[in-house]
Amino acid sequence: MWACPSIRSGRAALVTAARMLTFAAAALRRPLAPPLLRCSRRLSGVCYPLAERRGLLRLRGPDAVTFLQGLTTNDAERLRGGACGALHAHLLNVQGRSLADVILYSLSTGQSEPPDILLECDVSSVAPIQKHLTVYKIRRKVDIAPCPELSVWAVIPGQETPDPSAEAIIKLPDPAVLCTPDPRAAVMGWRLVAGTGGNPGALMPETRMGNVEDYCKHRYETGVPEGAKDIPPGVALPLESNLVYMNGISFSKGCYIGQELTARTHHTGVIRKRLLPVRLSSPLPAEAEGAEICTQSGKSAGKYRAGVEDYGLALLRLAHINEPLHIKIPGEASISVKASVPEWWPKPSEN
Fold first, then answer.
1. DSSP secondary structure, 173-210, as one string
2. Residue 195 domain-assigned (yes or no)
3. Which residues contact 28 (CB under 8 A, 6 or more apart)?
4. Number of structural domains, the chain?
5. How far is CA 72 from CA 59, 99, 133, in A?
6. What separation, in Å, do the N-terminal and C-terminal C-alpha atoms of the chain show?
7. pTM of the prediction?
8. Can you give the residue range of the structural domain that contains 319?
9. Structural domain includes residue 69
């Protein structure tokens, strides 16, 4: 039966409208999934409290981002307006040696808000870093203060690793303040900032609680340095500490304190020593931290930095990492050392 084209198009429009109304009604009947539920499904694994190892400073004011841009190795402008949830960086001295490894978190949610930034660092470095920042503050409009009311937690996934394309930062209900992928490496999971004394594990039913020793063991096993023991202030060099591999440096940003040596080393392309994960034949006594690591012929191959049980980090000459290595302990048998290259490091073709 023939029908006018306008009638046929009108019937099609009515059918389409009816379907849209049906879908809309079904959507209204479905309960809305809260952001926390989405986060809980994403965050599964072990939740580690880091309050005894990591502290926080808070920088607030219109000049906070510009101020950090001149003092950190990474591009702090990425934090403006909350565009980037977290940023890894080092603070350097004028000789280009690391003063501290830090993670910067933006609490601002839009360009119209003044910068509000949390600076995570080794708990022993909170006061020295505050003093260091104050020296360079001069007339900058930025307030710098410790933030004891907040604490840092790490969530290390089990079988699943964080999706780098996932939402950069997740806002959670109290007591959590923010949750974001660890900017250093996917093997480090997520970083969670929550109210001190709270129990963020209750917000994430698919996680179980862990302890800081197991967290450190995970870091050493996977080769991720953190804190003053792994990166001694005024001694460690940022590129030997794998700052490039851990997304902690920008070579296209403007000048910052300690840039000259770092940029020159990078552009020459010659890095003879690196921090590497090592496995020991038996645990070292605490006083042996910093011990020299030697080859079988007795030649120095580097130094042991720190570790937990038989896992640790050592600054080794790359020319010797495939050789049998050992540490001599006075009055005891030597301890064998086996170095490895982390799987998350970029392959040679990617460098």
1. -TTEEEEEE-SS-GGG-EEEEEETT--GGGG-TTEEE-
2. yes
3. none
4. 2
5. 14, 10, 11
6. 70
7. 0.83
8. 272-343
9. yes
Task: Note the pLDDT of residue 136.
Answer: 95
pLDDT for 28: 30
- Asked whether residue 188 falls in the same domain as residue 112, the answer is yes
For residues 172 and 297, state if they share a domain.
no
Task: Let me know if residue 318 belongs to a domain.
Answer: yes
Q: State how beta strands 143-146 and 292-295 pair.
A: unpaired
**CB-hemisphere CA count at 13 Å for 14?**
6
Euclidean distance between CA atoms 17 and 5, whole angstroms: 18
Helix (H, G, I), strand (E, B) or coil at 275: strand
Whether residue 237 is contained in a domain is answered as no
Q: What pLDDT is attached to residue 158?
A: 74
For the chain (351 residues), the mean pLDDT of every run of 10, in chain order, is 44 43 34 35 80 97 96 95 87 97 90 88 98 95 96 83 46 66 95 86 78 96 97 97 97 93 90 97 85 94 95 97 92 90 84 54
Q: Among the three residues 190, 222, 254, which one is the final residue of a domain in this structure?
A: 222
Question: Cα separation of 237 and 233, whole Å?
Answer: 9
CATH code where residue 304 lies: 2.40.30.110
Q: In Å, how far from its chain's centre is CA 233? A: 18
Phi-psi category of 135—alpha, beta or left, where left has phi over 0 and alpha has psi -120 to 50? alpha
CB atoms within 10 A of CB 294: 20
DSSP designation for 253: S
